[in-house]
Amino acid sequence: MVNGPGILVIDDEQPVGTFFTRLLSNKGYRIGVASSGAQAYELIEQEKFDVAMVDLKLPDADGLSLLQHIKAHQPGCEVIIMTGYSTTRTAVKAIQFGAFDYIEKPFDDIELVEELIEKALSFSKTEGALDDKDYGWAKVAEDVGFQVGKTPKMIKLVSISERIATKDINVLIHGETGTGKEVLARFVHAASNRRDKPFLAINCGALPENLLESELFGHEKGSFTGANVQRKGIFELANNGTLFLDEIGEASLSIQVKLLRVLETGEFLRVGGEKPVKTNVRIIAATNVDLEEAVAQKSFREDLFYRLDVVRLELPPLRERKEDIPPLVEHFINKFWDKNAGIMPIFSVNCIEDMNAYHWPGNIRELANVVEQALALCDGNMVLPEHISNKITGQSHINFKEGYPSNTQTEQAEIIGEVALKSIDEENLENMEEQEILNLYYKVEGLYKSLQTTIGRRGIKDVFPVSIQELEARAIEETLGFYNGNVSMSARALGIGRNTLYRKAKEYNINING
User: Fold this and answer.
1) Which residue segments constitute the domains of the chain, with CATH numbers given?
2) CB atoms near residue 418 (< 10 Å)
3) 453/457 Cα distance (integer angstroms)
4) What gap in Å lies between CA 38 and CA 17, rounded to an integer?
5) What are the phi and psi torsion angles at 382 (to 5°)?
6) pLDDT tens, 274-325?
7) Cα-flanking dihedrals φ and ψ of residue 310, to 5°?
8) Rounded to whole angstroms, how far apart are CA atoms 68 and 95?
9) S-S: 473 plus which of 103, 291, 430, 508, CB 3.0-4.6 Å?
10) Strand, helix or coil at 224?
11) Omega before 106 cis (within 30°)?
12) pLDDT band at residue 185, thresholds of 50, 70 and 90?
């Protein structure tokens, strides 16, 4: 009995099972073949597999249902969907449901099939033990300046984006203003087979209709006043590359008709032209509006929507990926700081706390502006709350003042009572709302300072101020906790080197993981 990796082939066409058996058995793989859904369910119960090749259409089963069953019963098994050209949209949906990839039948390139299976096997062995540098797309993301972060939603999004990048199908990116739709489009282009060809972008909402048409399709000499020479449009300039149509929902119905013609025929006319011009471009469109609603309102063509929406990528707003704010801040510091201006500043813990409490309606674009402004206002090496906008710092500080406006005995007693009622432990804190935690934090912080002052004024000897060493140890421990043990970010926030942080942590008996 073969003890190698297990490959499950589910296809109702017998030649497909025979093909994979002959292709893979001499490589030491253990092959299981099912020609129906019933046989597939039985094999999944009996044996463990590393990779499953699943046909989307079976007489007695749906490929997507089989995919979900496999991922539920054998989560480590990577599923490759086998599909005909007519079911490409469904195959892309399968990737969003957790499929590793899809491949179209018939299999013209045997090496490509073998490479895909090897890649899935490798992913199956390492899934769950990857950090952000181990993902196959990490280098591509770094090259285009795409800050993916560690949010599971972003990791899944980029993993899906990488897999559909090589498929040469149109992509629709949806996300709020400032979430980074263009940089995601550049990532898809850089991960595609068109990476060495042009990537051109145009904002469909930034130009009036006549100028947008000329920008997209070009114009002939003399076609309108001022058209002194023939000019190529970006559909022509981006030939064999990728065209990014930002804010596609803002395009007029007239422009939409012309875009649909290009997508259907691969041809267009320059403004004032009579001879069709051929083009071969991949379209990545982006919008911050609900195009399905726009279709229902008759402001966006339904046929164009389905041409663009072959696969949809949803970018989460920054408020749903708060854990990525510190590394994004670090990225923008490196981007905006003049390296000749001296020591690079860092953002204080209070600044990061304020940023985490803010709702970021402008998303990453707004964060970049805040960091750039703060660096311009900061004279020293530490960015403080006073260097960033009041609309960001005001949220937490107003809450503090409302919760702890003065040091009267009555108000202090109320705070003490509230803290006691909370019965603060990790379980209770985990169940609190974010704003509730912040309110409680500022109240406790204010109460602590007030208690210190009162103890000193009344000469109470049972409690003494902490030493510099104790303060240093506490700062190190709290900063490491704040940054989830990230040594680089903690060292930067503390204003010391990594080696110094390791040495001091050892000196104070503070455990550093990693």
Assistant:
1) 6-126 (3.40.50.2300), 151-314 (3.40.50.300), 322-454 (1.10.8.60), 468-507 (1.10.10)
2) 15
3) 6
4) 16
5) -130, 120
6) 899 999 999 999 999 899 999 999 999 999 999 999 889 999 999 999 999 9
7) -70, -45
8) 11
9) 508
10) coil
11) yes
12) very high
What pTM, to 2 d.p., does this model score? 0.69
- Residue 112, exposed/middle/buried by CB under 10 A (0-12, 13-18, 19+)? exposed
Distance CA 133, CA 104 (A): 30
Compute the distance between CA of residue 102 and CA of residue 83 in angstroms, rounded to an integer: 7
Amino acid symbol at 199: F
Return the amino acid letter for 300.
F
Distance from C-alpha of 489 to C-alpha of 480, rounded to nearest angstrom: 9
What is the token pair recorded at 61? 């089963």
Q: Which tokens go with 459?
A: 């000469």
What are the tens digits of pLDDT across the range 191-240?
Answer: 999 999 999 999 998 888 888 999 999 988 877 777 788 889 999 999 99
Length of the chain: 514
Give the burial class of 490: count Cβ atoms within 10 A of its Cβ; 0-12 exposed, 13-18 middle, 19 or more buried. Answer: buried
Residue 179: burial class (beta carbons within 10 Å; 0-12, 13-18, 19+): buried
Exposed e or buried b per residue across 142-165, where buried means at least 16 C-beta atoms within 10 angstroms of its C-beta: eebebbbbeeeebbebbbbbbbbb
Between CA 175 and CA 449 the distance in angstroms is: 43
**Contact predicate 263/170, CB 8 Å:** yes
